[in-house]
Amino acid sequence: MNCTQQYFLLFLSTVLYALSAVLNDYFWWASFVFVIPLLHVTASHNMTYLQGYFWGICAATLHLFGVLTGIVNLAEGSALQTLFPALLIILYAGLFGLLIPFCFSIVNLFFNVTSSFSRIAILTFAIWFYILCMDHISLWPFNCMEGYFLMHPLLPLIQYPSLLRTLPFFGTEVLCALLLITNASIYAVFAYHNWKAYAFALITTVFWLICFFMPIPAEQFPSWLDRIIVVPHVFRQQTSVEALAQNAAGTLQKITQQHPSADIILMPEAAFYSTELASPIFLAYFKHAFSKKIELFTGAFTCQDNLYRNSMYWIENGAIKTVFHKKHAMLLTEKLPAWCKGSLLYELYFKNFNEIIPSENERPLLQIDHQVQLVPYICSELFFANRPTDQFIKTPIYSLCNDRWTVPYVQRLMLQTAQYKAIEWQRMIIYVSFSYQQCIDQFGRLKQLGTTEPSP
User: Fold this and answer.
1) How does the average pLDDT of the chain come out, rounded?
2) 3-state DSSP helix/strand/coil percent for the chain, to nearest 5?
3) Staple partner for 348: which of 75, 162, 365, 414, CB 3.0–4.6 Å?
4) How many contiguous H segments (helices) and E segments (strands) does the chain have?
């Protein structure tokens, strides 16, 4: 195999890897085969660090295209300046591709691996280690001991949630290892054509087939979902606080009149571009807007002691019941580490906007009545949590998200991440964004929530 063929196969591997996420409806199955071209390259040749970086760069570019598009659009500067963060992210994320040849060289240093089967096993482990690092520690240089989950090869399988039914028992790391072993077993069939390879592939694929075909209990979504109306709308800052309050109260009043059975209004993160939601003017308008008791839950902002926070408000009959401030800040778009202050990155994103400061407040229980109880998670709080960060582990989650900043396939990946968390945590999630409004049960199944947009 010459050098050109090797690089073509490396690129093909990253294309399959990205297609499983970007065009999930059609290429979800690529998660079961994306490693095969990579295995074919390394089965008889040592993968060089240059090849590892090439693979990492291609994987990052293809996978993160939608996220990088949003990041570029949010930046304020010249065209060349706004592209700088995207280029920096690609170059940095590509470094993790070096882990693949690094792991292989370390093992080879001690054991002098010669058999092709051993090489396949080591490379499979190296890819698993790459995914583990991307998922858990890829953001550590930016004072965030966390990773980026939307590139995980298990996520596309949520297209058929039953494939992930063992997730609560095995966990992400073990199930990921099984997925990569399945990739390796399929490659072994084509590479060796012997009964051992066929038996190996049969064992690994039967596991997924059993998961796929095993019956799931019938849907049992709670009846109180009929009481919810979702309003995926943005109320932007106007000439005065009173004008914004009057517009919002009037709009929500019309919606409740059109949906008389609804008494709970859910809105996404940052639905109100204002820090004045708790002001007497706002509350007075909300108090007189509704002819019956209405529970309003919405995302807005809060400014206290010059600290700008991303918040969730619970307003009932013109009174603030609960204000919860986001405990996590998104790197780059909400906050930058201290060492970036004064840099071009800071000028691009926070020259005219305030950084979001994470709060230390306790995550509350939103007890509406004896039927309905929710726990709020604001956008990235759900996506970057490896385990629940509240004590109400059986209570449904109200996940309010802002997905207006990115492209459709990333918006879909955000919903699928919420489905993944619902299965992993065995917990119902009420997912409310501008693009999707769904109730997700513990098996990853979706139920569309009642939704309405204000009349023009």
Assistant:
1) 90
2) 55, 15, 35
3) 75
4) 14, 11
Q: Are 130 and 101 in contact (CB under 8 A)?
A: no
Which amino acid is residue 239, in one-letter code? T
Contact 59, 109 (CB under 8 A): no
Within its chain, how far is the Cα of 387 from the centroid?
14
Q: Is 188 exposed, middle or buried (0-12, 13-18, 19+ CB in 10 A)?
A: buried
Looking at residues 346-364, what average pLDDT do you find? Answer: 86
Residue 66 reports pLDDT greater than 70 = yes
Q: How far is CA 353 from CA 274, 300, 330, 349, 359, in A?
A: 13, 15, 14, 7, 18
Residue 14: the pLDDT is: 96
Q: Return the axis-axis angle of helices 408-425 and 3-22, rounded to nearest 10°.
A: 70
Q: What is the DSSP string of 375-435?
A: EEEETHHHHT-SS--SS-TTSPEEEE---TTS-HHHHHHHHHHHHHHHHHHT--EEEE-SS
CA 246/CA 129 separation, integer angstroms:
54
pLDDT tens digits along 404-455: 989 999 999 999 999 999 999 999 999 999 999 999 999 999 999 998 877 6
**pLDDT higher for 339 or 7?**
7
> What does the block give as tokens for 381?
């709080």
Q: How confident is the model at residue 90 (pLDDT cuts 50, 70, 90)?
A: very high
- State the pLDDT confidence band at 196, using cuts at 50, 70 and 90: confident
Cα–chain center distance at 456: 32
CA nearest to 255, candidates 201, 311, 294, 199: 294
Backbone angles phi, psi at 400, to 5 degrees: -100, 125
H-run or E-run covering 245: helix 241-258
In this structure, of 64-78, 165-179, 193-207, 346-360, the range with the lowest mean pLDDT score is 346-360
Record the pTM. 0.93
Question: Residue 323: enclosing H or E segment and its boundaries?
Answer: strand 319-325
98 is written with which tokens? 């070096």
d(CA 23, CA 25): 6
Pick from 393, 394, 440, 435: nearest CA to 418: 440
Calculate the CA dihedral of residues 146, 149, 150, 154 and round it to 10 degrees: 170
Give the Cα separation of 333 and 163 in Å (integer). 34
3-state class (DSSP) for residue 310: strand
pLDDT digits 0-9 by tens, 257-309: 899 889 999 999 999 988 888 889 889 998 888 888 999 999 999 988 888 99
259 within 8 A of 296, measured Cβ to Cβ? no
